[in-house]
Amino acid sequence: MNAASADSGVRIEGVSKHYDAEGGVVRALEGVSFDVDNGEFVCIVGPSGCGKTTLFRIIAGLDDATDGAVYLGGDRVEGPTPDMGVVFQEYHLFPWRTVRGNVAFGLEKSGVPEAERRTRVEELVELVGLEGFEDSYPKALSGGMKQRVAIARALAADPALLLMDEPFGAVDAQTREMLQTELLEIREETGKTVLFVTHDVEEAVKLADRIVVMDKEPGRICETVPVDLPRPRSRSDAEFGGYYERVLDLIRSA
Question: What region holds the ABC transporter domain (predicted)?
C-alpha cells in the first residue's frame, strides 16, 4: 500500500487558474476550495465552461494552478503520482496490449515483480468483471469493457484516490447505468476515495456522498450539496427527484 493511502483525503485550497488571451486575462478558476474526506465519493458538476476539466487537470497534477494548491494525504500535489488513479472519458488503452497487458502496464513501469504483478492483474480483472477476456485486445472489446479495463489499470498501483473525468460519457445509457452500479460496488469493496467529474446531474445524485456545484465566469464553488440517501438509489424516488431538481436549479442559476 502506498504511503498516502493511510490518509487518502484530498484538499483543494484556494485554487485559481488564469490564462492570458487576446483581449485580456481569462479567469478559468478563482479561489476554489473544498475537501474530500478519506473514503468519500464526491461529484463535481456545473454548467459548460465552469472549469471542471481545468480543475480536474490541476488536481491530477497535469496542469499548474496560478494560485493555490492541491494536497493528497497531506502532501502537496506537484505532478502526476501513482497515489492517484486517473480515468478519462476516452479509454486511452494501448491497442497493441491485451486486457492483461493494459492493466499490468503501470506495475511493469514501477518494477513490480512478475509473480506479484500477475496476481494483482488477476484480482483486478475479476474485480471489474472481465474474466475470460484477459487475452483480448481493445479492438475486440465494447465501450463498457474498455472502460472497465481503464478502471482496473487505474486501480493497479493501489492509489489513494480514484480521480475520474466524465468516465461514462462515451457509452450508451444502458451501459452507463451498469457501469455506475459496478463502480459503486468496486468502491464499496476497495474503500477508495473517489472524485468524479460529470455533466450529468442524475449520475451525480446516484453516485455521490456530496455534490460540489460550480459556478462560471470565473469558475468557483457555488454550493456543496450532501446527498443523504441510502444506496442503491432510484431516480423514481421522490427524494432522488428533489436532489436532482435542487442541483439542476443551482446549475441553471450559475
Answer: 10-241
How far apart are the two ends of the chain, measured CA to CA in Å? Answer: 41
193-197 and 41-45 as β-strands: parallel, antiparallel, unpaired?
parallel
Rounded-to-integer distance, Cα 14 and Cα 11, Å: 10
Q: Give the CB-side neighbour count of residue 201, counting CA atoms within 13 A.
A: 19
The CATH architecture to which 3-83+159-252 belongs is 3-Layer(aba) Sandwich (3.40)
| CA angle centred on 57, ends 20 and 12, rounded to 5° | 95
pLDDT tens digit sequence for 157-214: 999 999 999 999 888 899 999 999 999 999 999 999 999 999 999 999 999 999 999 9
In contact, 135 and 167? CB cutoff 8 Å: no
Every domain range in the chain assigned CATH 3.40.50.300: 3-83+159-252
The pTM (predicted TM-score) of the whole model is 0.92
